[in-house]
């Protein structure tokens, strides 16, 4: 499905990003996975680089390496993200700032750093990892929900700004997915999420990777500015 395509995935060392990197690689893409941490896997079609989405100089260096090696970028997945949850009255300013810096400004940094390479592709696709809470909100996640809502707004903006150059921009909005990010949640929280999920199970990383693969591929070539929820019906 992705033969000959060059793809960059941020936060590709573990969790959802790792599964996307492997899914893309199995489907013929040349994948560059950028993360702060080392991966615990390898694949002949995946190379790993140190990438911090808050470091604009670092982003510039990687963009110039990709430009030199491939001359273009066909797929960008803005997946890196963190949570620092607490109820509003207890939320520390440092936790607000950190989540905004990585989840929101990080997406802007990476898109701005790579857009000229995306424009060099005949048809490119940007997939931003949002969240159902970016559309519906969630108690205890003022900072995180704000960033994910912002990511949806940026995607729609880029769909309009770059559509004329055949750059598509879409979001995937996961519900509750079993990853290291959610492994730290309490049993009560997990039970509450399961009760609110009509399909009655936690999402798996492969559920997200399948949707991202579709949006990255030419199968979705007339889809832009959309948000696809992959949530088992959570928050319906
Ligand atoms: P994860 O397991 O924590 O993986 C996220 C990866 O991003 C980690 O390897 C992390 O490295 C990396 N990262 C963090 N800050 C970074 C930075 N500044 N620069 C580059 N990489 C950075 O999380 P996940 O559950 O797979 O989540 C992936 C995406 O899906 C996130 O955007 C998240 O908000 C979204 N999402 C997840 C769920 C869910 O239920 N899991 C639901 C909705 C949305 P470190 O380990 O060093 O932090």
Q: Tags for this entry?
A:
236 residues; alpha/beta; seven-stranded parallel beta sheet; 8 helices; 7 strands; globular
Descriptive notes:
The chain has 236 residues and is α/β, with parallel strands linked by helices. Strands 3-2-1-4-5-6-7 form a seven-stranded parallel sheet, with helices on both faces. Helix 1 packs across helix 8. The chain is globular, with a radius of gyration of 17 Å. The site of NADP nicotinamide-adenine-dinucleotide phosphate (NAP) has 29 residues, from helix 1, helix 3 and helix 6.
Q: How are the elements arranged and paired?
A:
Elements: E1 6-10, H1 15-26, E2 30-35, E3 46-50, H2 56-70, E4 75-78, H3 93-118, E5 124-129, H4 133-136, H5 142-162, E6 167-174, H6 180-183, H7 187-195, H8 205-216, E7 227-230
Parallel strand pairs: 1-2, 1-4, 2-3, 4-5, 5-6, 6-7
Helix pairs in contact: 1-8, 2-3, 3-5
Structural class: alpha/beta
Strand content: 15-25%
Question: What spatial form do the alpha-carbon principal axes imply?
Answer: globular
Radius of gyration: 17 Å
Calculate the mean pLDDT score and round it.
97
Number of DSSP helices? 8
């Amino acid at each position: 499905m992705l033969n000959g395509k060059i793809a960059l995935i941020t936060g590709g060392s573990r969790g959802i990003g790792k599964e996307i990197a492997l899914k893309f690689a199995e489907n013929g893409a040349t994948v560059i996975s950028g993360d702060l941490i080392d991966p615990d896997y390898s694949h002949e079609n995946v190379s790993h680089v140190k990438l911090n989405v808050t470091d604009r100089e670092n982003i510039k260096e990687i963009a110039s390496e990709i430009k030199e090696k491939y001359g273009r970028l066909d797929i960008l997945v803005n997946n890196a993200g963190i949570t620092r949850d607490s109820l509003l009255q207890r939320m520390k300013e440092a936790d607000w700032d950190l989540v905004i810096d990585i989840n929101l400004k990080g997406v802007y940094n990476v898109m701005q750093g790579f857009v000229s390479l995306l424009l060099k592709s005949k048809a490119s696709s940007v997939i931003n990892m949002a969240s159902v809470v970016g559309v519906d909100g969630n108690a205890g996640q003022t900072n995180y929900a704000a960033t994910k809502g912002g990511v949806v707004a940026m995607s729609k903006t880029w769909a309009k700004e770059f559509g004329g150059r055949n750059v598509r921009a879409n979001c995937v909005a996961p519900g509750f997915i079993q990853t290291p990010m959610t492994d730290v949640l309490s049993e009560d929280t997990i039970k509450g999420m399961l009760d609110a999920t009509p399909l009655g199970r936690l999402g798996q990383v492969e559920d997200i990777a399948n949707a991202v693969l579709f949006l990255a591929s030419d199968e979705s070539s007339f889809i832009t500015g959309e948000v696809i929820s992959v949530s088992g019906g959570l928050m319906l």
